[in-house]
């Protein structure tokens, strides 16, 4: 039976380190506990916030409802064929631990997603991605519990309506389901993704050539890059990339490129749009290293907003809005938060 607590401090449970409280709090370790919890009469109409690693939320005030901390564990091979391993992981598994589990066993597909903070259950909601790979490329299915009915449902790839940092769980089904496990389709023979970012250069510095390339080498390269650019939440409160990289029309990109010849751009397949790094835009707008009180923009990566100690959620949010307005004014580009503001 789950243990429901009251007036719990959420500072240890969000990587921004925002000091707010939950009116009610419960930790769920087994999928079977959820239906009974959700049918408790006193909590039927209570607002609910589902937390994994707390690495993609900005908490701006106390939560006057029930916070459900998902801690379901377990990693199991559920089936395999000649080309793929199908691996089921509990929603509470730390994402990077799952990546390392796969790298150590030679299951290919996750290596570019090394060191992304958070847990497995939150990954499909956000369709997490990095260095040329997105979760949807290795996704098979997930199980989720309907918050109102307690029914368990399976969602396949099409059901999830994945997009860039998007899924059906952020739109049509927002707040309706709690993800309990995710099944991934991983390759027995790897397809290497080395074109995005500084992966090739980092591999070369590591002495890795195309002839001796492995998924472990790519994972090591990605971890090196991330550690050199991104602050550790254990040291400085942050939620990783705060903004999505905007996608703009090719014509707009070319016009901006004529004014800023070092503007990076990544053409999107089968479209007339180009993805532009939000970090570059923010840095060029003059925000890199900016600090107001304990809220700031990281000195090494302008895409990351940080809490140097005692910043409130509202202070971080106000800074984010200033950055958005500045980028819009200078470049005519709207940048949207990747982080969920609560």
Automatic annotation (TrEMBL):
Highest taxon, organism lineage: Bacteria
Species this protein is from: Spirosoma montaniterrae
EC number in record: 1.3.1.98
Subcellular location: Cytoplasm
PROSITE patterns in UniProt: FAD_PCMH
Family, as annotated: Belongs to the MurB family.
NCBIfam families per UniProt: murB (TIGR00179), PRK00046.1 (NF000755), PRK13903.1 (NF010478)
Keyword Calcium: no
Reaction catalyzed: UDP-N-acetyl-alpha-D-muramate + NADP(+) = UDP-N-acetyl-3-O-(1-carboxyvinyl)-alpha-D-glucosamine + NADPH + H(+)
Protein's pathway: Cell wall biogenesis; peptidoglycan biosynthesis
Name recorded for this polypeptide: UDP-N-acetylenolpyruvoylglucosamine reductase
Major subcellular location class: cytoplasm
The FAD-binding PCMH-type domain, residue ranges: 18-189
Example of a GO biological process term: cell wall organization
Xref: HAMAP family: MurB
Free-text function comment from the UniProt entry: Cell wall formation.
Cofactor: FAD
Active-site residues from the entry: 165, 241, 338
Protein keywords: Cell cycle, Cell division, Cell shape, Cell wall biogenesis/degradation, Cytoplasm, FAD, Flavoprotein, NADP, Oxidoreductase, Peptidoglycan synthesis
């Amino acid at each position: 039976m789950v243990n429901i607590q009251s007036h719990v401090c959420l500072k240890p449970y969000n990587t921004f380190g925002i000091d707010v409280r939950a009116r009610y709090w419960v930790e769920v370790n087994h999928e079977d506990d959820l239906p009974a919890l959700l049918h408790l009469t006193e909590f039927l109409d209570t607002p609910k916030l589902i937390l994994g690693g707390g690495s993609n939320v900005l908490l701006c005030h106390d939560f006057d409802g029930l916070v459900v901390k998902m801690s379901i564990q377990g990693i199991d091979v559920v089936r395999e064929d000649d080309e793929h391993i199908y691996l089921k992981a509990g929603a509470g598994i730390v994402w990077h631990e799952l990546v390392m589990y796969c790298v150590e066993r030679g299951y290919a597909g996750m290596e570019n997603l090394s060191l992304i903070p958070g847990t497995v259950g939150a990954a499909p909601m956000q369709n997490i991605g990095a260095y040329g790979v997105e979760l949807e490329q290795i996704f098979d299915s997930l199980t989720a519990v309907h918050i109102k009915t307690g029914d368990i449902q399976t969602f396949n790839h099409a059901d999830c309506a994945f997009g860039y940092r998007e899924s059906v769980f952020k739109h049509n089904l927002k707040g309706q389901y709690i993800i309990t496990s995710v099944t991934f389709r991983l390759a027995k023979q790897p397809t290497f993704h080395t074109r995005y970012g500084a992966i090739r250069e980092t591999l070369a510095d590591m002495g890795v050539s195309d002839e001796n390339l492995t998924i472990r080498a790519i994972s090591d390269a990605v971890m090196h890059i991330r550690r050199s650019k991104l602050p550790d939440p254990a040291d400085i409160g942050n939620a990783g990339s705060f903004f999505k990289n905007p996608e703009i029309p090719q014509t707009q990109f070319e016009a901006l490129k004529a004014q800023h010849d070092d503007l990076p751009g990544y053409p999107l397949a089968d479209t007339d749009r180009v993805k532009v790094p939000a970090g570059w835009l923010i840095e060029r707008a003059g925000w890199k290293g900016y600090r107001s009180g304990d809220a700031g923009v990281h000195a090494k990566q302008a895409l990351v907003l940080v809490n140097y100690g005692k910043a409130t959620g509202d202070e971080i949010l106000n800074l984010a809005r200033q950055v958005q307005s500045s980028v819009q004014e200078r470049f005519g580009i709207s940048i949207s938060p990747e982080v969920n503001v609560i």
